Amino acid sequence: ARYKAGLVARGFMQKEDIDFQETFAPTAKFTTIRLLIALACSWSWPCHQCDIETAFLWAQIDNDTPIYMEQPEGHEDPDYPDHVCLLMKSINGLKQSAYLWTQLLAKTLKKYGFIQLKTDPSCFVKSDSQGTCLIIAAYIDDLLIIGRTSELIADFKKTIKGEFKLKDLGPLAWILGIAAERDIEKGTFTLHQ
Predict the structure, then answer these.
(1) Three-state DSSP class for 120?
(2) What residues are paired with 182 via a beta bridge?
């Protein structure tokens, strides 16, 4: 067991067009996830997953729209108790946090040659001279990765670890509250809810 604590902003106090402009963040549709699992199964491709740790903290807040918050309770500066904090990074609770994170993830994946699909903006495809080699579906900070070979997936994870703190969860076993069980010999993937 582990204990986690986090600083959460009171985003309900934010005002549209003053504190934020955009909040929409695409997440992988369940049909996209099922399709990718079916493709991995029919093509006999490995299917992995990973989690970006503290995803929202990787995204910078737009300098044009500064956001201030009161000092967290129990962590007030004794010399300046009435001062406020200027947020530099997106944190949980802000209305624009998910939007800022997905914009950063998309920009990072595009930098490494991925193309963002128009039909599902949370899905990214990378091709090489032999055709499609990696497909990634992002559900906020959870990534589902299918690739032509395990080596391509391992290289991708190594590359992304250079950008973000990544928890490698290995072959797909559990995604979005659904247990996934693969039988490579039979060529099946069973999803348990």
Answers:
(1) coil
(2) 189
**Rounded distance, CA 50 to CA 112, Å?**
18
Distance separating alpha carbons of residues 48 and 101, to the nearest angstrom: 21
Average pLDDT over residues 102-126: 95
Give the residue-averaged pLDDT of 145-161. Answer: 95
Closest CA to 124 of 169, 171, 156, 163: 156
Q: Is 28 left (phi over 0), alpha (psi -120 to 50) or beta?
A: beta
Burial category of 192 from C-beta neighbours within 10 Å (exposed 0-12, middle 13-18, buried 19 and up): exposed
Largest interatomic CA distance in the chain: 67
What gap in Å lies between CA 65 and CA 165, rounded to an integer? Answer: 27
Q: What is the spatial distance between Cα 62 and Cα 87, in angstroms, rounded to a whole number?
A: 10
Q: pLDDT class for 127, splitting at 50, 70, 90?
A: very high
Residue type, 46: P
